[in-house]
Amino acid sequence: MTAFPDSFSSLRREMDQALSDVLPLPAGPESRVVEAARYSLLGGGKRLRPSLLLATGDMFGLPHTETLPFACALEMIHTYSLIHDDLPCMDDDDLRRGRPTCHRQYDEATAVLAGDLLLNAAFEILLAHCAQPDGTVGWQARVHAARRMARKAGIEGMIGGQAVDMQYEQTPADETSLRRMHRMKTGALLEAAMLVPADLAAPDPVLVASLETYADQVGLAFQIGDDLLDATATADQLGKTPGKDARDHKSTYVSLLGLHEAEKRLREACERSAAALGTLAGAGLDPAFLEGLTVFLTERES
Ligand code: GRG
Prior knowledge:
Blueprint: H1 4-20, H2 31-42, H3 48-59, H4 64-86, E1 95-96, E2 99-100, H5 102-105, H6 108-130, H7 139-153, H8 158-167, H9 175-201, H10 205-232, H11 235-238, H12 244-247, H13 253-257, H14 259-276, H15 278-282, H16 288-299
Antiparallel strand pairs: 1-2
Helix pairs in contact: 1-3, 1-16, 2-6, 3-4, 3-9, 4-6, 4-9, 6-7, 7-9, 8-9, 9-10, 10-14, 10-16, 14-16
This protein binds geranylgeranyl diphosphate.
């Protein structure tokens, strides 16, 4: 069995390679927008979501020819959301993935278009894959999976969560509202990473239910971790500006619960996520990567 850090590094390398091919530079003046999209897409990032997608697909025995287009699309959607989130009209940040944000490196209009391009290109890749005549997965399952990705990125997921978050700039959120907002804003794409391979492999519904519970708890653990890092880590560690939540008077798990209780909730979410994997292991699947991820989330420093 390969250790989690080695599997993660190897999947990350595979992702970096695949992503470097997805947006070729055109010849005309429109190349500036592509350059800006490539700047954000290829300039670092943990590649957590696409690695998770590939690893979950591996667990179900899916070849990477079936999962890689979805993994690329997911990272492109995630990157577009970061570019737009960093804009002055949203979170207004200067630093992302250890470098100037897209609108700082280029300009605001170019950054808007670079985000739009990434979103559009993500679905272009998925549609091309759905139309491929050969492969081990039928086109109906591919379309079902692509539709799930669209839904998780949309108003029921990430965009909806961002819209709710904007409302809480006026009125502080309580813990229940905060949980719902994060389920949508951050949890939805993480969930897509695990449920898209399930759509493609169509396993027993009991296994899908366990994966849903795991994804939900991992999403929670990731978000609490993000709030803790924002409160405690340095810009060098994070590659983005720390302390922004407090500066912007945002409701976070740290502001609502305090550091100590937030750390405790993070550990509990990781324990619950690890427990949900028992059903998968019981069915003869190997959830080693998913187990490793829960440990990674309790220990991550960026
Ligand atoms: C603008 C439509 C739109 C949505 C924005 C995801 C998001 C919604 C905003 C990002 C703000 C933020 C810091 C959310 C917390 C969780 C999160 C998505 C962190 C960044 O993900 P990582 O840590 O980043 O996986 P890397 O750079 O490693 O890919």
